[in-house]
Amino acid sequence: MKDLKQRALRGGFAKMCAQVANYALRIGSLMVMARLLSPRDFGLVGMVTAFTGVLSLFRDFGLSAATVQRVNITEHQMSTLFWINLLVGAALSLLTAAVAPLAVAFYHEPHLFWVTIAVGSSFLFNSAGVQHSALLQRQMRFTALAKIDVISWAGSTLIGISLALAGFGYWALVGAAVSLPVVGTICMWFATRWFPGRPRRGVELRSMMRFGGGLTLTGLIVYVAYNFEKVLLGRFWGAGAVGLYGRAYQLSTIPTDNLNSAVGEVAFSALSRVRDDPPRFRSYFLKAYSLVLALTLPITMAVALFAPELIAVLLGPKWKESAPIFRLLSPTILIFALINPIGWLIFSLGMVGRSLRVASVLAPLVICGYIIGLPYGPKGVALAYSTAMALWVVPHIAWGLHGTVVSLRDIAVVASKPFISGIVAGGIAFGARLVLRQFLSPLPQLVVESAVLSSVYLGMLLFVMGQKHFYVDLLRGFRKPAPVEEQALAST
Q1: Measured distance CA(142)–CA(377) in Å, rounded
Q2: Which DSSP state fits 383?
Q3: Do the Cβ atoms of 144 and 191 come closer than 8 Å?
Q4: No. of helices (H) and no. of strands (E), the chain
Q5: Residue 356: inside a domain, yes or no?
Q6: To which H or E segment does residue 140 belong?
Q7: DSSP assignment of 322-366, as one string?
């Protein structure tokens, strides 16, 4: 426990580096694929992933998080959980194959039959590595996890681009999606050197199953809330509309997905270890929260201000209709940075019941927004989505924090410094944009605008808002000697 802070800092740094690499890979892949494939190609696969994504929430039944959150776990428990995960993965793959005809009938797209079956096979591959990933998280071996993330994304990106260049159309997207869990699972088996034993009865899994079940049900409700609009758009506006909306949505979620993966995994593991030490728990949480907000705000401002330039550079001219959708979705980038960390806190404390109640209120609110915006197409849905999330953000935070050692005032104090810095930087960058767009093409314009935004933001945050000491302290933590990592399951 003494070296927990050091492990968290170094693990967070490793994950951040990996996510930067993954971000570059995902953006690079998207730039290439968007130029090789059509909006319809993306829309076809988007229809399937919106459908199969619901099933993906059951792929580990929350048992990986239960493994990480538990204070002590035995070899027999881990092995039994592995076989449960594998059985669930096989069942999901078979279920996906069974519902493929329903996807064809619902969307009136015969091409979806084999696409659905192929995408469904990824459940089996993913399930074989769930407990291995959880073991690496328990041991806080985030450097190993970071390397696996990069290798997996690099492999899937290479496969996807190769298939697109060979003229396979939407099958290039399918190949990339399926190869990602295959490469990741293989790497995790090599990294852990752990081979599961046979499943056993009477190994006290009931509490872990309850925790995992609550987590899965919460994830299911949240997934439906955040993805039902793609189903509606596909049904009533067609594959082209899903393609345009889906690329804008993907670009808006990549930053928060990467940050939540980089900081969230480390924060959840660390908070689970100190949940019985309230002062330390509060300190760790607020520092992680501050870091996520500080990194997200300039990205939000950039998308809100420079959406047309970003779409032109990243996707190309045939995707220009995605630019207004992208801009309308920009508030959600910041909103997810505000609410996602609340999930780390709730789950590390084992409060799955509260998370379920929060999700049960969120889902109807967001879905009602989609229905209101649907008659106006992708732009109307994007505006309705952002509006519903903006109305929900403060109640979400207040409800999640109630009764914990972290208060709403703590959040307001932590958020105020990056917020003020972002507003000032955004105002100056907007002025620069008004001048530059008359003289520069999209790429140099975007480079100069981003440089102005980031430099003003950093100057405000570090020096005017007095955050320099906080980040210097983080950097010092990265330079300290690394602790010896746990090498055996018994030491967890």
Answers
A1: 42
A2: H
A3: yes
A4: 18, 0
A5: yes
A6: none
A7: HHHHHHHHHHHHHHHHHHHHHHHHHHHTT-HHHHHHHHHHHHHHH
CA neighbor of 441 nearest in space, from 301, 275, 317: 317
* Dist CA 297 CA 299 (whole Å): 5
Q: Find the domain containing 24 and state its range.
A: 4-485
Per-residue exposure over 121-142, b if at least 16 CB sit within 10 Å of its own CB, e if not:
bbbbbbbbbbbbbbbbbbbbbb
Q: What is the pLDDT of residue 492?
A: 38
Would you say residue 490 lies in a domain? no
Q: pLDDT tens across 124-173, in order? A: 888 888 888 888 877 777 788 888 988 998 999 999 999 999 988 889 99
80 domain-assigned? yes
Exposed / middle / buried, residue 252 (Cβ in 10 Å: 0-12, 13-18, 19+)? buried
Q: Is 359:400 a contact under the CB 8 Å cutoff?
A: no
Mean pLDDT highest for which of 9-13, 15-19, 29-33, 406-410?
406-410
* Token pair recorded at residue 393: 């953000």
* Tally of domains in the chain: 1
Residue with tokens 């993965």: 89
* 492 part of a folded domain: no
Alpha-carbon separation of residue 460 from 99, 351, 420, 456, 468 (angstroms)? 53, 37, 8, 6, 10
Other Cβ atoms less than 10 A from the Cβ of 376: the count is 12
The helix-helix angle for 239-273 and 206-237 (nearest 10°) equals: 160
Are the C-beta atoms of 250 and 55 separated by less than 8 Å? no
| pLDDT tens-digit map of 53-97 | 767 766 666 666 666 666 567 788 888 888 888 888 898 899 888
Q: Average pLDDT for residues 87-111, to the nearest whole number? A: 87
Give the closest residue to 152 by CA, choosing from 138, 133, 131, 124.
133
Please, which contacts does 72-75 make with residues 24 or more away whose CB atoms are closer than 8 Å? 72/492, 73/138, 73/489, 73/492, 74/203, 75/197, 75/489, 75/490
Can you tell me the distance from the alpha carbon of 179 to that of 448, in angstroms, rounded to the nearest whole number? 37
Which DSSP letter does residue 275 get?
T
Q: How far apart (Å, rounded) are the C-alpha atoms in residues 370 and 322?
A: 18
Q: Single out the residue of 264, 434, 422, 241 nearest to residue 330, CA to CA.
A: 422
Q: Three-class SS of residue 38?
A: coil
Structure tokens that stand for 32 in this block: 């290439």
Q: Which of 393, 385, 386, 290 is nearest to 331 (CA)?
A: 386
Q: Cα–Cα distance between 19 and 296 in angstroms, integer?
A: 14
| DSSP one-letter code for 315 | T
State pTM to two decimals.
0.71
